[in-house]
Amino acid sequence: MTTRASRPVGTVTRGTTNPNRLRRMDRWIAATHGAALRRAADPVAVDLGYGAAPWTAVELLGRLRGVAPRTRVVGIEIEPDRVTAAKPYEQDGLVFRHGGFEIPVAGRPSLVRAANVLRQYDEREVAAVWARLCARLAPDGLLVEGTCDEIGRRHVWVALGPGGPRTVTFATRLGSLERPSDLAERLPKALIHRNVPGEPVHAFLRDFDHAWAAAAPYASYGARQRWTRAVRDLAGDWPVTDSATRWRQGEVTVAWGALAPSD
């Protein structure tokens, strides 16, 4: 008796993608999760919802193999035609499969990257999707879920382990930034509607803008120096979890609990 394959879980996204769009997220993953990938017996990374073109999955393979050479990448798309179009790009360590939030791979992946996937969902659906994806992770696995602009200048993502959300990272090309709160438009679905007075993420971005303004004298040394100074001051009041090594990349990572919705 033949069992019919279950239908993929999720809905089709717009599929917008561009080369190097996710470079900031990939750079952060390689730096912070590379050691876990190297430790894994069979390190599998999933590019969930890679879109209408396979560029992000191809790039993810190259960037992760730079820090963990045994890593394999599986690109997963819920739209069958996108999987068919991506097949010619398969190579050693990279395959494409039809699927959704059920993550149709054997075993438990060490990494699931879901970029610009939940943007179209309702905020009330996010927690259930997170829980489903986290349940598929290896014990030391990581889910990275977030949103960026079309060319990857501004990006905000949440990092989650099997136990749930851990941190929120803000990343930007500093030359394009007028003030840190410009990143608010790229907040992931769990936070974007919470950027209102009385919510922690709104208070964080407000304080970040104040720190940025106070660091204006450092602008003469460049935007990187101004950002680094602003984050250093911000860390006095907010649980910043990374160091100047990451700040100089135009990033700052904050503990999830400090920015989580108030209800």
Describe the 3D structure:
The protein is α/β, with parallel strands linked by helices and 263 residues long. The chain has a domain at 23-172 and 239-256: Vaccinia Virus protein VP39 (Rossmann fold, 3-Layer(aba) Sandwich). Helix content is 33%, strand content 19%. It has 9 helices and 8 strands. The protein has helices at 23-39, 55-65, 80-86, 123-134, 189-192, 200-214, 223-234, 244-247, 256-259, and strands at residues 44-48, 72-77, 94-98, 111-115, 142-148, 154-161, 164-172, 251-255. It has an 8-stranded mixed β-sheet. α2 (55-65) links the parallel β1 (44-48) and β2 (72-77). α6 (200-214) crosses α7 (223-234). It is globular and about 55 Å long. The mean pLDDT is 94.
Summarize this structure as a short list of keywords or feature phrases:
Rossmann fold, alpha/beta, single chain, globular, 263 residues, 33% helix
Cα radius of gyration in angstroms = 18 Å
- Portion in strands: 15-25%
Structural class: alpha/beta
**Total of DSSP H or I helical runs spanning 4+ residues:** 9
The CATH class designation of the domain at 23-172 and 239-256 is: Alpha Beta
pLDDT averaged over residues = 94
Global geometry? globular
Q: What's the CATH topology label of the domain at 23-172 and 239-256?
A: Rossmann fold
Task: Kindly summarize this structure in a few lines.
The chain is of the alpha/beta class and 263 residues long.
Write the layout of secondary structure elements.
Blueprint: H1 23-39, E1 44-48, H2 55-65, E2 72-77, H3 80-86, E3 94-98, E4 111-115, H4 123-134, E5 142-148, E6 154-161, E7 164-172, H5 189-192, H6 200-214, H7 223-234, H8 244-247, E8 251-255, H9 256-259
Parallel strand pairs: 1-2, 1-4, 2-3, 4-5
Antiparallel strand pairs: 5-6, 6-7, 7-8
Helix pairs in contact: 1-2, 6-7
